[in-house]
Amino acid sequence: MTTLVNFRSDVTVEYRDHMGDDKRVVEAMLVSTNTTDAADDLKREPGRINYLMRDRHGSPFEHTALQFVVEAPIFVFREWHRHRIGFSYNEMSGRYSILPATYYIPSSDRHSVQVGKQGAYTYEPAETEDQAWLIADMKAEAIENYSRYERRLEKGFAREVARMSLGVNIFTKMYVTLNARSCMSFLSLRTKRETSRFPSFPQREIEMCAEKVEEHFARLFPLTHAAFEKNGRVAP
What is the pLDDT of residues 194-217, one digit of tens each? Predict the structure, then answer.
């Protein structure tokens, strides 16, 4: 059994479902004073949401939910799973299924060389020949690792044992559900923006995921996203 190994330099964040909207955030805020929004009072929503964001009143944003199906390499999920509060995860299991033969390989323009000391460094482009060598070397490694995985399965070894040396750049899939407050916390740490009050320096691959999450977040919660931007991309 020899499976053709596929290579990707992208990630997938597919919108699956959501609950609530900007109005739901305002409704959750107003319950504290036992009032509700009149139908003709919607023009006050931007100011109210900005007030919540500015003064760090975060709980009203928790009465929402966004759900995605994400396809990315394992090393990205290791970083993503560090976000625990307000997140729920279900990931494809290498114990119960044969992992697909798809590996993440950096693109030719991915900055791959670390320059500077720990805590004060940047990532710079590698020389063209060096980057080409890196890509070819990683592809060869992936093909060899997956071939060994298949041979172990053919010999009857358990999937949970056969998978042990597949490499963290193999693709996996997960459902992730989070609320708007947790989403903003994720975005503040996993994107690099000049408008951020607190600078962040995410690994490029998880930033690629975060950028796709933010596209959906901005579409589904436009007033909340605008207030998030206005107030320095700090989660309330």
Answer: 999 999 999 999 999 999 999 999
- At 163-186, the pLDDT tens digits run 999 999 999 999 999 999 999 999
- Look at residue 70 and tell me if it is in a domain: yes
Write out the two tokens for 139. 């592809």
CATH code at position 25? 3.30.1360.170
Q: Which residues are known to be catalytic?
A: 190
In a domain, 236, yes or no: no
